Amino acid sequence: MLRQLKALVKSLTEATKEAVSVIAEKLEKCRERAIFSLYEFKHNEKLSADIQHSNTVTDLLLSRFNNVKKQISQKNSEAKKLQAEKNGLSAVNVFKRRQLSEQIENLQTEVAELKTEKAVLLSDMKCENEKDVPNIKKQREKNDVSLENISVRNLQLAEKVKADISDFKATVAEISPEDMPAVQE
Q1: What phi and psi, each to the nearest 5 degrees, are found at residue 50?
Q2: The pTM is what?
């Protein structure tokens, strides 16, 4: 009978050790999943912030680029009008022709400055020429889609973390007080 009692105690001890190790392993897996999900969540937040910053810069560059293009077009059309007016004047109107020539020259200088600014903006957008600008707009749209995907993924991660924490708490609640020191090791 003593041998049976010893065998029973031994088997209970082994079962308790196995149960404790299973519980500890389950807790560790819950913890690892929660940590990984939180890490991915933080990474997504950083990525989202970077994309939003990129979108803001792109929006500013595109806005300025479109404004410069519009100004160039306006000034060129104004210079053409003045040139047509100048060509329509007789040679007798020397003062008016000189005034128009100065205005045309000023407009051409402004257009040259605007073209330089346009080239700088193209360079800032990493475009070789104006034909590459639609690619920037497409990339901007892709960024918006990426932001939406990140937002959806973060919602999924938040739910996953809640479930992992809930599993963790449920597993901890299952541990008897006398087994708690063994699990904490």
Answers
A1: -65, -45
A2: 0.71
